[in-house]
Input
Amino acid sequence: MQGNRLADKVAIVTGSSSGLGRAIAIALASEGCSVVVCADLHPITKGAEFGAEEAGIPTHEVVQQRYGKSKALFVQTDVTVGADVERLVQEAVGFGGRLDIMVNNAGIGGTEHHGMVHEMSEEIWDNTMWVLIKAILHELAL
Output
C-alpha cells in the first residue's frame, strides 16, 4: 500500500543502488513521492539484501515495478565530480519539475576490502574521507 505523506514531492537519493540508499529510495516512493531520482555510480544492486526476488534489479526499476513507470529514474552520478551532481539536479528538475528532497547518502565505507577501520592504511582512510566530504560539499553547493 502506498502512503501519501510525501505526495507531489520530488526526491534525489545518492548512493541508491544498495544498502540504506536503496531502502530510502523505496521508502520515499512508498510514502508517495511523485518522483524518486536514484543516483549512483552503477544502477545494479551490490547484494541481495532485499530478497531473492529483487536481487540484481536496479532500485529505480524496483520503484517503477511497485509504484509506476513514471515514479523513478536512474542518473549515473559520481558525487565527487561537481558537474555530475549539477547534471543530476538538472535531470531531476527536468523529469519531476522541481526538487524537494535531497538525500546525501553516497559514500564509501573503506572497510569492505581493507578490514576494520583501525587496520586501514592512511591512503585508504584519506580516500574514504575525501569521497564522503566532497560528496556533501558538492550536494550542499546546489
